[in-house]
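Quick illustration for those who missed Monday's session on complexes.
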Amino acid sequence: MAVTADLQKDSIMKTYIGVIFLSLLIFGCEKNHKSEKEAMAEQVKAEFRHTWNGYKQYAWGEDELLPLSGSYRNWYDTSFVMTPVDAFDTMLLMGMEEEAEETKELIFESLNFDQDIFVQVFEVNIRLLGGLLSAYQMDGDERFLTLAEDLGNRLLPAFDSPTGMPYVRVNLRTGETEWPVNNPAEIGTLMLEFGSLSKLTGNPEFYTKAKNAVQALFNKRSEIGLVGTTIDVETGEWQNTESHISGRIDSYYEYLLKSWLLFEDKDFLTMWEASIPAVNTYLLDRVESGTWYGYADMYTGERTRTHYGALDAFMPGLLVLADQIELAKELQESNFKMWQLTGIEPEAIDYVNMEILSDAYFLRPENLESAYYLYGATGDAKYLEMGKVMFQSLIEYCKTDIGYAELEDVRTKEQKDAMQSFFLAETLKYAYLLFAEENVLDPDKYVLNTEAHPLTKTWP
Ligand code: DMJ
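Prediction with 1-deoxymannojirimycin bound:
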């Protein structure tokens, strides 16, 4: 009896010690994770500052820094201070008050949309209109809204087509339009910005025109529920009937769901729910190398290509918002596999044989973006680890003395003298949000536009 009691005591003791040891280990790991996360967030901030200083020194007041030659590039005949407008809310999130103040002054001193220039509606919308609206909501200065409203009014004539779908380009001064062959991404990625502009100014026209365009496009889907790559906005005829989730279609899907989340307008939920099953039936592809989205004919659903790329990598993040976490996890494994092929992701691959089809890297954010959403939804340290690897490859291969450079070729790591404004708006923002404290941006309150500008429902 005594021996049994002693044994029992002994085993209770051992379990007790085991539990304490395990708790200490978990606590220790959590603490380690926390301090490592903090250190990573600081490092992202340091890289942002490094790049911003380069912009200040070599490209102040211009659209984009050229990170190898120490020069600059403007998109059009005049600068629209693309990088500062795109980078401003990242500075606010990072708590970089001094930099935010100087940026704000630069924007108000130099930004003037009264220009006789044809601009690309989609790019100007996601970067400038999105940036200004987010700046207004986060900073509160009315001048941001005044600029946003002026820009919105100048973009409105783009919708004056027979179908209500926008032309690709509009002249900011005359309202003339050009290029009627447009695509779902450029037609369907205006709603978050135009809708917010209506809510914030009280003028419903922005919301109505952007929504009509989305609905006109949605109505052109095939019987099996897919859209094609290009469509003529004057005739409503599809020009290229290949369907996919890549560039030229990608953010159409993103905005269907996010417009529902931001405006709680059921029509967007209906369109999302009618679209995504078709995407997951005909485009989703599970092969030996992993789970991917391929290309298919929009009418028959037949596979046309087994291509995937850096732009497609946004989809796991979007699926998290749609609560399709398991699929998102599967896809993120593939995203990371693509990243690891050469230590930094190529623009496009054939996922069947993992062959690189387009070997550039444009400093794109989508892979990090999906890691951020998945970490938020699962709390799984695996996604932090992925983010860490991706961020470190950026430092290793893309960093220059004055900023960050795209890569000509992910195999040779040869750098290219270009740095798009989304590097500061998105790539470093998602990296920062992944590692920073959760309360830096409340995911239940904010919807990020496709250029990662946070928008929030401040209206009734
Ligand atoms: C950004 O301008 C936006 O994220 C857009 O939706 C896709 N392309 C770039 C980033 O890769």
